[in-house]
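CORE FACILITY INTAKE
Project code: CF-77B
Contact: R.S. (postdoc)
Sample description: multi-component assembly, three entities in total
Requested service: structural model of the whole complex
Turnaround: standard
Below are the sequence entries exactly as provided by the requester. Do not edit them.
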Amino acid sequence: MLTKTMDPAKVLKVVGTSPVRPDGVPKVTGQAVYGADTILPGMIWGKILRSPHAHARIKSIDTSKAAALPGVKAIVTGADLPDHKFEYVGPERVAVNYWHMTRNILAREKVLYEGHAIAAVAATTPAIAQQALDLIHVDYEILPHVIDVDEAMKPGAPLLFEDMITRGIEPAPTTPSNIAKRLEFSVGDLAKGFAEADEVVEMSFTTAAVHQGYIEPHSCVARYGADGQCELWSASQGHFVVRAYTAKLLGMDIGSLLVHPAEIGGGFGGKTVVYVEPVAVALSKKSGLPVKIMMSREDVLKATGPTSGASMTVKIGVTKAGKIVAADSTFKFQAGAFPGSPVMNGAMCAYACYDIPNSRAVGYDVVSNRPKSAAYRAPGSPISAFGVESVLDILAKKIGMDPLELRYKNAVSAGSPTAWGPKHAHDGFKETIEALMKHPSYKIPLGKNQGRGVASGFWFNGGGESAATLHVNEDGSVVVATGSMDVGGSRASMALMAAETLGIPYDKVRSTVADTASIGYNHVTGGSRVTYATGIAVVQACNTVIEDMRGRAALTWDVSIDDVIWEDGHAKLVAGHAGDHAPLSLAAIAAKRAVTGGPIVAEAAVNAGGMAPGFSTQFYDVEVDPETGHTKILRVVAAQDVGRAIHHDYCEGQIQGGVVQGIGWALNEEYVYDKEGHLSNAGFLDYRIPVASDLPHIDVVMVEVPNPNHPFGAKGVGEVNIVPPMAAIANAIEQATGKRMTSLPMSPPKVLAAIDG
Amino acid sequence: MSKHHITTTINNNPVEFLCEPHQPLLDVLRDELGMTGTKEGCGTGDCGSCSVTLDGRLVCSCLVLAVEAEGKTIQTIEGMAQGDHLHVLQRKFLEHAALQCGICTPGFLIAARALLERNANPTEEEVRFWLAGNLCRCTGYQKIIEAVLDAAKEIRGA
Amino acid sequence: MSVLRYETPATVEAAAALLASASGPARVLAGGTDMLVQMRSGRVKPELLVDVKHISEMTSLTQENGGWRIGAAVNCMALVENKAFASEWPGVIDGANLVGSVQVRGRATLGGNLCNASPAADSVPAMIAAGAVASVVGPNGRRDVPVEQINVGPGKTSLQKGELVASFFLPSRPAHSGDAYLRFTPRSEMDIAVVGAGVNLTLDAHGVCTAARVSLGAVAAQALFLPEAGQALVGTKVDEAALDALAASASAAAKPIDDKRGTKAFRIKVAGVLAKRAAIAALARAKGIN
């Protein structure tokens, strides 16, 4: 049965409230079990040996001394994993290549970044495992390295892959380079467009790589049995994807691997891939014992994917009436050591907020000797937005138009074109601009050394595969199980949607995340897809159960099912029916289930389409100390279209969290490499994420323009909020100081240098 | 290398354990005593996830050697609730949605309790500066601050 | 980690004896907030740790001859919480209150902050400006060393094998005195000083500065004591001209490096800015305005 689409007239009883989440008490009491908290009998400890060099050929690995150390139970290297065909699999925007993936897990021919994993040891104590690592001898032939994206693109740059020929160029180049791919999105006629412009601004920008910064390092426990069946407890954003990747990398049947969803201590996209899981499984297989691996913070920063840093040029033309007539940009994204930066997203999202008749966005995916990039909250979009939203600000000034007004004049709505083909299907962007225009804080006057900056952002949001199961317990309470890892409170949202659909109180619904053997496939918790797609599956399962219960009531009353409605958690006879039966509650029906057909259960599986994108418009007030270049954030207002806030406070929390990550990205976060290609700031002291004393109140305005394709109108909330902050803060700093910052982060030495000229 | 035998009090219970001199208290709590409520986020005292109190002082347990716990009293997150009776801070964190992934939450609760036991009437700025040693990447801190201020209000009212 | 011995002596002399007789690398363990991080990274591989927190002389904070005797292993929070000390030496408290976080300050000590010899240590410029004197105990007995002579380079002290700092003495305070420490960091907390400036000054009854000590941190291989910069204030009412002279002297004295926390040019400029701002704060305290 299809999910009913949203009924805008219906008054909701529980959706939109903010009840306590089911994992709340376990988390505030320290009882919740995260990846590193799993303890199994007989468990031993795995540690990973990592390359000290940014780029080197591996001539040999000698593990004999390590193997002889008492307490060492297994050692693995790349040779212990099967190799894979070199091919890109899956849709282009998210394609994977297992030939690359297995080499990132454990290096083979070369090490391609400092921190690249080469070997792993499992031993009876962490200290022995560490000692064993020190006894592994690797013979390296050190090679010249390259870190920066522009440097990596230059002819003559050290090559990471001697046979890499850029894809996406016709005819294909004849010489190899570090450019994995070129892509382009074009519409209209650029020359004509720029000819119509009264003002044109072209500017170059750079951004630094930034890490998702989840507080929990990657961890897992693997237990491989003598029967070839393996269980894995892993902190991830998608245990089905962990299962798929790990099984593939080990050459196992997917069904032989059962992944338990541990609680996750933050992901933001960075835990949608595997690092330690295949290693732990391999060590467990060799040793015959359960193996725990927990990455250190240093290893997390050196060896797990940050998002790309980038170099870009953005050119935009507007008429003096404020119409954007042409845009032309080139985006060069660092992919890290293996191809796969989010440059395609960056190119597609760059102008997606605006109806621009003539545009081109060219993207380059470039490898260099640093960790392979991984998804980070709206991957790619914040990077291109930094350039585009900065240039729009400059243009607004040139034509004497309020920056919100300029955006509003060109804002997309349902029916507007996109640069990549399909039309926008949803409104919501204009409403975020309106929210800011009306906001009382937007009118607060500013003082000396202070400035205000605005920016907007877009993110696709995802749909995709989700499965949900609903069980009605004997006492009328229900269990909602899905396969969507809960990063931000989605168990509560699923329970809210189930409670609303069934018409029962929230506290009668138990919401869980099931393991890979207990529920159908669920894609990752990412792309802001869970409340949307998994929510649809939950509601579908509820509706199936409702049908079932109507049928059981009809059976009990000996009436036609068409005479039975479901309302407020009860089966009721339709109005005007001749017979006279008191309504039957869910609990009453459950109590009689044995005689009416047995257990009351439904599963639903969807591949959800029809999702709506995220739009956000934000402003930041800053004060810049002209003698030190230090930027203080005074005030933030972030407006975002959430469709419908299923759990009010958790939606707000997502927006506040993304904003603060954006503040860190704007002001202080970056990877600092020394001349040898070693990461100088591999810790939370010098990789500076914002602390509580750095921040003001984050004011959130949740605009609700419901998505009719979701039973409650929800749109994905988690990601788009990180897209505007960097440009908005750059725009605010410009107003405060008169200086345009074109390089992230806008740290004090750089701002002071700009002020001092 | 022979281990040290350490006698201590954890959450008002007498506890003894064996450890090697190099082992941080954090590792012993988690790996020897199975008390995994205290988390490792960085191991270098930069994130506060491993916060405990040691003789009433708020500290990072990754910066204390387990041998230094001899004769001391330690409070961890596991001791914060009394049976099924949550501490006011734990309740307020839940009410105010002051956690998303929750990994930093035990550290914040221990740190916030240490503040409110010294000063039940902190300003917002005082709360933000006291908690600056606890990193959170999910929430942007706002709801955490609101929860702590609300807990303080209740403590004063009680 | 290989063999590690852990000892808890009851007196400073016993601690010194343990350090003197150690055959392998030996370290004092006070707060451990730098030590444990260095052990974890392998930068330091001690074979002996001498825990000094059981030595009452080193954990006491007392008044002595009108001044203060601070045990080298008194933790920063205990120092900050001592109201009598804090009201007399707010600048030292500024520094102690900026070390790490509340958690770090619950363990970190002035002795450790000094002897770890990071050029950016937050308590050191304020202690130098205060005129603190370290009481050093070793195999040959005790000696007094002005704090500015302890650090000789990053990670290096002038202490001989077997010596440790047992305590600090801060002299009695003349009337109309005030001190302040300011630092520049990208984040408001949880950061290492990119530049630190400590100023301690005394005024006469007419508001004229009769004594001033200025110290800069994080702009050279060790914290600098700048007699010339202090002289720029003496005899003045610490007016704009005097402050500008102070700033120029401070910037001129700064010999920083480029590193991941700041560039040379940035540090030189900000050294002057912070010295000036610290002097303004110290002046306000000397005048009794807070």
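Facility notes:
- Chain C has a mean pLDDT of 95.
- Residues 177-286 of chain C form a domain with the Enolase-like; domain 1 fold (CATH 3.30.390.50).
Invoice: internal transfer
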